[in-house]
Amino acid sequence: MKELNIIEEKKNPLFDRKEIEVEIESETTPSREDILILLSKKFSTEKENIKIKSILGKFGSRIFTIKANIYNSKKEKDN
Fold it and tell me: Whole-prediction pTM value?
């Protein structure tokens, strides 16, 4: 897997979270665990604070689009 490319990053104060959309290039579909590790390193947060909404890939392409929400704490994520 290569580096993450941030497509969109916005703050949602109503739900107290950061909504992100990133692209990653990979030979195979990346696992949720791999994505959690990459996002936690990139955004300097714990894996437990990240909720992955979707991993989208197009047939024949090695680029995957990932949508996720990053919360300040696990408690906020679970609410």
Answer: 0.87
